[in-house]
Each structure stands twice: as structure tokens, then as C-alpha cells.
Amino acid sequence: MLIELFKTMGFSLTDKQLHFWIIGFIGLFSFFIIYFVFKWIQQLKWSTTIISFIYTFTMMVVLVFAIEIQQAITNRGNMEFADAVVGLWGFIVFFLIYVAIALFIYVISYLYNKRR
């Protein structure tokens, strides 16, 4: 589809050249957006935790879809989008439990130090 669009615009690109330009542009555009978002996050109190969550969540998305693709290639399971979503929900739920415990400990220590 994009190849036809580029041909109508007067460009003669192969599939590899099209991937080079489009993915290169999308990657650079994404880099600048992510850079400014992370610079903003850096100013927040728990910036390391937030950035760690974003990185881990991204890694989990890649891992979950790699497992689903592997299941489809090897025929050792059904490749289902719902499995990937449920797996990611598992990570989010466990992370929220961690956040609740950490906030509880933080509030208790804050109240204890304030009382002193």
C-alpha cells in the first residue's frame, strides 16, 4: 500500500528502501517523544520507579508476544492475543500489589518519623 503511494508521488522504492525510510523516521520521531517524556518524568519524585516500570512493561510486551509467536511457529500452543493481554495484566496486578505494599511502608515510616 505504501509502495503504491510512493510510486504515485514519483518515488521508486523497493520494499527494503521503504522499510529503511519509514522505520527510520518512526524511530527518530518516537525517540524525541520518549526523550521529552522521560525528561519530564525525571523531575518527579519517584522517577526511577516510573522509568523502571516503563522499561519492564516494554520488555514484558516483547517477551509475551515472542512467546505467543513461538507457540504459533512450533505448534506447541494456540497463539491468542487474549493470552498476551492476560499475561500483561498479571504483571500489572503484581506491580500494583508491590506499589500498595511500598506505599503502606512509606506512610508508616512517614508517620513514625513525624511523630518523633
Folded structure, characterized:
This protein has 116 residues and is mainly α. The protein has two domains: 1-43; 45-116, no CATH class. It has helices at 2-8, 15-42, 47-74, 81-115. Helix 3 runs antiparallel to helix 4. The longest helix has 35 residues, at 81-115. The radius of gyration is 22 Å and the shape is flat. The protein starts with a helix and ends with a helix.
Outline the fold blueprint.
Layout: H1 2-8, H2 15-42, H3 47-74, H4 81-115
Tags for this model:
single chain, 116 residues, mainly alpha, flat
Quick summary of this structure?
By secondary structure, the chain is an all-alpha fold. The protein has helices at 2-8, 15-42, 47-74, 81-115. The chain is flat, with a radius of gyration of 22 Å.
Element order, helices and strands? HHHH
Rounded average pLDDT = 88
Number of helices: 4
Query: What is the rounded Rg?
Result: 22 Å
Number of beta-strand segments: 0
Distance between the termini: 68 Å
Main sheet: strands, sense, barrel:
none
The helix fraction, in percent, is over 70%
User: Regions with pLDDT < 50 over 5+ consecutive residues?
Assistant: none
Structural class: mainly alpha
Share of residues in strands: under 5%
Number of domains: 2
> Can you tell me the overall shape?
flat
